[in-house]
Amino acid sequence: MSLTILDNETLGYGRTAVLSEVSFALAEGERVVLLGRSGAGKSTLLNAVHDRLAPAHRVALVPQDHALVPQLSVLRNVLMGRLDDHGALYNLTNLLRVRAGDRAGVAKVLEAVGLGPEIDRPVHALSGGQRQRVALARAWWRGGPVLIGDEPVSAVDETQAGVLLEQARSRFPTAMLALHDVGLARRFATRLVGIRRGAILFDAAPEDLSDAEIAALYAG
């Protein structure tokens, strides 16, 4: 069953078109990876799919800029993954004095991404790679059937990235990510979507695409 469909649509910001006449569907159980040069339109497509999905489905989001609050602790940033599960009073009191059960749950997802000891550190004191893992931990804490991530492992090494993507695979039945590492993309995806100059160049299973076809996305 398709979760979201774009039918011959033009996507962009304001009056600026980034992707023209795009048709796209994301089905339950798929792991779609977007490939292409910076500025090709990957983020635009991710945002459009997120906007279509979010009203009817629980979506865990890892934006490219992480969307963290630097002054707050790792613990409190991860807790924000479930803000919409509770009312304002619960959230306010929990941010002031975190409930034991929530702290234990967050500690577990932080251990999974290798940040257990950093639970009480302010985010501004972390490295870029650590901040990215906080954003991933927030998505793990949120949970749900769908993960959308914009370069969610770009700031960690390839080994860490592989581990984190395996966690994503096990935690989320459906995923749509933009990745810059083609090797990781091939291992994670059930579909690879190549975007070049504002258009989808290919949309196929990894085994049906040659290295040359993928390399053409980045040529010139």
UniProtKB/TrEMBL annotation:
This is Hypothetical phosphonate ABC transporter, ATP-binding protein. The lineage of its organism: Bacteria, Pseudomonadati, Pseudomonadota, Alphaproteobacteria, Rhodobacterales. PANTHER family: ABC TRANSPORTER ATP-BINDING PROTEIN, HEMIN IMPORT ATP-BINDING PROTEIN HMUV. Keywords: ATP-binding, Nucleotide-binding. It comes from the Bacteria. Residues 3-219 form the ABC transporter domain. The keyword Nucleotide-binding applies. Coiled coil: none annotated. One of its GO terms (molecular function) is ATP binding. Pfam families: ABC_tran (PF00005). InterPro entries: AAA+_ATPase, ABC_transporter-like_ATP-bd, ABC_transporter-like_CS, P-loop_NTPase. Transmembrane segments: none annotated.
